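Hey,
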Amino acid sequence: MTFNQFTTQFATEEQCRLYLYKLRFPNGFECPKCSHNKSWLRSNDLYECASCRHGTSVTAGTIFQDTRKSLRDWFVAIWWITTQKYGASAEGLQQVLGLKSYQTAWTWLHKIRCAMVVPNRSKLSGEVEVDEMYIGGFSEGKSGRGSENKTPVAVAVELKGKKLGRVRMSVIKDASGDSLVPFIIDNVDKGSKIITDGWSGFSGIEFTDYEHIVYKQSNAVSEDEMLPHVHLTVSLLKRWLLGTHQGAVEPKHLQAYLDEYVFRFNRRTSSKRGLLFYRLLENAMRVPPTTYRQFVDKSPEP
């Protein structure tokens, strides 16, 4: 849909609420307590089960729970975020919605980033390059394995011929096999071909259900040439973090930014913004509620 179509379809709070109702109950009402399929509307947003009298709202248990802002504001925020080609900032969202509080915009963005991880998403498959990188300040010092004050991140890139396919990125504890092998198992289908460098942390892959191809560095071949797709993806990520967020990402929030980048990267060729809006809103209905305090108090991952 175009922006004009969007504003027409979601012009009122009631239109937004009915849309969320259809997302939450695609096959009609189902009581979350007893699974009965009949209810009546007891108030503006509270549906009471005709059998057990349990009350539930459309937004209960979702990122919209207990919101003091209108659902239409949330819809506009999600639409705006999905239409930003290079990412969204809290300052930009604050301006779009006319919010007085930067904290509110920052919290909304983090809530929406939680919905960018698709539940039960399919794993990468086929040929997959895997490596780790380090994200942190831009001070001088070691930049690779053993870097101090930097956060290790595992990266997997699916290959589609000579082109980049989908990617996965996760903050990890360190570059050991105890961190890297579980990352591969969690994100890549068994039977796939895993391509890595000769780092010992990948040595445990041969004991799992994967074909492991090791490229060892030589004087004639640089590390970038051994794993070109991973290193291109890493370069694009760092450019995105620097350009959209000025590189100012705290370690405890890094996974959220990685999730946003992966969501955008894996949908980079999509021309249907309306479908992206729908998918993100659909995921938002499955994500449990969170608060500003939970984000602030969060410990660094993993």
